[in-house]
Specification:
Length: 116
């Protein structure tokens, strides 16, 4: 039951932070993440706007500080880059290649959070 709400009232914003701007070899990982996100949106039926943001833009203020701090910390501690990173309504939900079920769950939680 939708209680009179229209799906567009709950448009979810999804950002994929891409590393391929700096490391071209990451392009296949970004593409895989994009496909997972698009499949999750399709399977949930949620209205969403998906954008890809270069990590350089994210670093210069395009993403929350805590997301960039985590990416830098992970790299410094393990020499591992947690990209692509997925943000849903500004909240980081995945670092690296996302799992479809985790993204679907996060998308649905974002819709529920907007209803409150």
């Amino acid at each position: 039951m939708r209680l009179g709400f229209q799906q567009d009232d709950f448009k979810v914003g999804i950002v994929i932070i891409s590393g391929s701007c700096c490391i071209p070899g990451m392009a296949p990982l970004d593409e895989q993440a994009r496909r997972v996100v698009e499949q999750a949106v399709s399977e949930t039926g949620v209205a969403a706007q998906v954008k890809v943001m270069p990590v350089t833009t994210a670093y210069m203020g395009g993403a929350p500080r805590e997301v960039m701090a985590r990416l830098i910390k992970d790299f410094n501690e393990s020499n591992r880059v947690g990209l692509p990173a997925i943000l849903i309504n500004g909240k980081a939900v995945s670092y690296g290649i996302p799992e479809i079920e985790a993204i679907k769950s996060a998308v649905l939680q974002a819709v529920e959070a907007k209803k409150v």
